[in-house]
Sequence to fold (101 residues):
Amino acid sequence: MATQKTTQGNGGAKAGEKEKTPRKEWSDQEKRANFKAAASARTSRVIKAVRALRGITRASRYAWTADEVGKILGAIANEVQAVERQFRNPTVTKGAEVFTL
Fold:
């Protein structure tokens, strides 16, 4: 009697591994719609966050140095430049996750 090895439910994946499902192929129209929705939402959040910085410009409540302001504006400028570079040359890169003075 011949013994037959079968895999049940894991598509040949090793024990403990999940079977990878194939990625959906997006149409150009779907990609454009996804981009517009994500870009609008994310850009709005960035603008709101930048505007929130105005709150710490009140000299009656906060004190800062020119060096600290330079660090804040420099960090923002660096991230904007990183986004510009990535649009020109899309690669997976990560910048600094946390900013501290």
